[in-house]
């Protein structure tokens, strides 16, 4: 908790600068930070929030209301610096698959109920929630309906339809990176990412959603290849 409070306190301090806030309004940082914030809100206001209990909260410097207030203030500061860009922080939060209007409304009600947020911030947060819920509803309506037993997304079928000689591919891959290799390691006979994808057959499962989300983010920043596994030493 000391480390968490220090880290969040630093983010809280940094986002008081308009120049720093602007860094969170463009991809890829906007998408990654939006996902992180949604995770924080879910932990503090979701169904597992009741598990975050200790006998002596002061002993562990655990103040969930203060944590929630700091997170909301960070959201408000970043939100002021963007104009709802499609790759921006607010849109990324609203269209994230894990975004929950219910959790966000609970965050708002807790802060108002306990009078830990000033009236100006309260109005700003309420207005932002209304905008985010509209964006979220639009994203849900545009998303293709997925029913149990239906096919996986089209990109999966396209990848499966490509005929590759795995042996030749592996040889070319090793040859291409041969000069860059600094060490070798004994690995198990499967790739964890590939196994996760093959085990999660239900398109609605959290695992598939997580993989899809990660693929989407990587595609805008890195080349993604199903046969590639790269180790980097810094």
From TrEMBL:
GO MF: ubiquitin-ubiquitin ligase activity
Give the UniProt record's GO annotations in the biological process aspect.
ERAD pathway; protein ubiquitination; ubiquitin-dependent protein catabolic process
The cross-references to Pfam families, in alphabetical order and at most eight, read:
Ufd2P_core (PF10408)
Q: Which domain of life is it from?
A: Eukaryota
Its pathway, per UniProt, is: Protein modification; protein ubiquitination
The record's subcellular location field reads:
Nucleus
- Which range is the signal sequence, renumbered to this chain? none
Tell me where in this chain the Ubiquitin conjugation factor E4 core domain is found. 1-131
- Keywords (A to Z) from UniProt: Nucleus, Transferase, Ubl conjugation pathway
Gene Ontology CC terms:
nucleus; ubiquitin ligase complex
Q: What is this protein called?
A: Ubiquitin conjugation factor E4 core domain-containing protein
């Amino acid at each position: 908790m000391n480390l968490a409070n220090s880290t969040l306190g630093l983010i809280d301090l940094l986002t008081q600068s308009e120049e720093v806030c602007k860094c969170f309004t463009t991809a890829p940082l906007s998408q990654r930070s939006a996902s992180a914030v949604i995770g924080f809100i879910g932990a503090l206001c979701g169904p597992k929030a009741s598990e975050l209990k200790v006998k002596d909260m002061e002993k562990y410097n655990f103040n969930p209301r203060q944590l929630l207030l700091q997170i909301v203030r960070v959201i408000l500061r970043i939100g002021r610096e963007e104009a709802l860009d499609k790759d921006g922080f607010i849109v990324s939060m609203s269209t994230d698959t894990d975004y929950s209007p219910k959790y966000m409304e609970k965050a708002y009600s807790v802060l108002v109920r306990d009078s830990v947020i000033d009236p100006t911030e309260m109005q700003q947060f309420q207005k932002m929630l209304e905008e985010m819920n509209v964006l979220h509803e639009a994203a849900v309506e545009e998303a293709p309906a997925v029913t149990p037993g239906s096919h996986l997304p089209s990109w999966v079928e396209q990848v499966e339809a490509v005929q590759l000689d795995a042996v030749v591919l592996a040889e070319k891959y090793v040859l291409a990176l041969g000069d860059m290799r600094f060490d070798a390691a004994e690995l198990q006979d499967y790739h964890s990412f590939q196994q996760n994808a093959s085990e999660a057959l239900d398109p609605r499962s959290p695992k598939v959603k997580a993989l899809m989300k990660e693929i989407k983010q990587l595609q805008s920043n890195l080349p993604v290849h199903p046969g590639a596994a790269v180790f980097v030493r810094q």
